[in-house]
Design brief:
Number of strands: 13
Helix content: 40-55%
Oligomer: single chain
Order of helices and strands: HEHEHHEHEHEEHEEHEEHHEEHHHEHHH
Strand order of the largest sheet: 3-2-1-4-5-7-11
Length: about 375
């Protein structure tokens, strides 16, 4: 099953390359949050397929240093120099075919009232700047928009199943997502909003914290393990974003960026255990997480079951539909389904780094982006 899933992803990459070589539309894409966990993978995929990338960031110099491969492959970096009143993001957006908005402070840090304000303001501020930049471009050459949201939009539930037509919840994250999406919808252009689940891949996100613990034989579920867990492999999320950029009319509207088969926290940990050949035996009490993360513990202790019904109806094909398949691919092979040590025929890295260095670089880059957004 794992091998079959990887064939789909490989075919998608090859097909995208072939389309560029056959003379179909080459894209120029501006990306906020490009140095983050998802953004870096998106930039790599776009560049591998022959598209031009413009990185929208607060500190262009720091972002360039954190993404040397992207810089050497021609990515351009734009700082929004609000101190001098010059909106470089406007320059960057003009001339693009699409814009991807991924910026926002990390929800995995401990929450207090001040940080909750940062979570809201970082997302609304970045989205407003992007939307203003898009709307400033003459309508006949205005880029499309793909803007991130989260499954937190639906609130939490142990019994309900949510899809794109479900009403929003009433907790803090739900209210944040409603405001975030409302800001994105002000763009006068075809817009796709992707409500993303927990993104799975090595080097960051949830697995960046869980995998090392399992590898040290200390793994186990967070809380009682029964909470719903809606997830997506990073490759599939990147592919969905690229699909929306390539065919904005087909994917316009709100889509769930979650795998077709949600699981539970126990299900995730069992999959990690099977993929790593390590025991799943040491649960982390919910009370300890609440003491550590405050209200932010809700993200991992409560959860929701979210299905991508509209995403599937639009014709999107997931490479990883089950968490077992995803974890096997992540732990036993790289993001293109190859075993460690195999040569990557689809994308030759300009800067050669070993796996550990690449994961460390991704973590550092994510920290750079978070700091940029928090201090923007």
């Amino acid at each position: 099953a794992r091998r079959a899933g990887r064939v789909v992803a490989t075919t998608r990459v090859v097909a995208a390359k072939a389309s560029s070589e056959d003379g179909t539309k080459k894209m120029t894409v501006a990306v906020t949050g490009a140095t983050g966990f998802v953004g870096r993978a998106l930039v790599r995929e776009l560049q591998a397929n022959g598209h031009d990338v413009r990185v929208l960031t607060r500190d262009a110099f720091a972002a360039r240093l954190s993404m040397p491969g992207a810089a050497l492959k021609g990515a351009k970096f734009y700082a929004n120099d609000t101190a001098n009143g010059y909106l470089r993001w406007f320059d960057a957006v003009d001339g693009c075919t699409g814009v991807v908005n991924l910026a926002g402070a990390s929800i995995s840090n401990p929450w207090n009232e001040a940080y909750k304000k940062t979570l809201v303001e970082s997302r609304l501020r970045a989205t407003k700047r992007v939307v203003d930049g898009i709307n400033a471009v003459p309508k006949d050459r205005r880029p499309t928009l793909v803007s991130s949201s989260a499954v937190g939009y639906y609130g939490t539930s142990k019994t309900k199943t949510f899809d794109e037509n479900s009403a929003p919840g009433r907790d803090f994250l739900a209210r944040l997502c409603v405001k975030w999406e409302r800001e994105a919808k002000k763009a006068d252009t075809p817009t796709t909003i992707v409500r993303t689940g927990v993104v799975l891949e090595k080097g960051g996100g949830a697995l960046g914290k869980i995998l090392p613990i399992f590898q040290l034989y200390g793994g186990g579920p967070l809380g009682d393990g029964s909470q719903r867990f809606s997830w997506i492999h990073r490759d599939d999320l990147v592919a969905l974003i690229v699909a929306a950029l390539e065919d904005p009319e087909k994917y316009e509207g709100t889509l769930n960026g979650t795998a077709p088969e949600p699981t539970t926290m126990n299900g995730l940990c069992e999959a990690v255990s099977a993929a790593t050949n390590r025991p799943n035996w040491l649960p982390v009490p919910g009370v300890a997480l609440r003491l550590l993360l405050g209200e932010g513990a809700t993200v991992v202790l409560d959860g929701q079951r979210v299905e991508p019904r509209e995403t599937l109806r639009r014709g999107f094909k997931f490479s990883h539909e089950t968490v077992d398949d995803a974890l096997c691919a992540i732990v036993r092979g790289d993001s293109n389904g190859k075993k460690k040590g195999e040569e990557d025929d689809e994308e030759e890295d300009v800067v050669a780094v070993d796996e550990d260095d690449e994961e460390e670089e991704e973590a550092e880059a994510a920290a750079v982006e978070e700091e940029e957004i928090v201090n923007a």
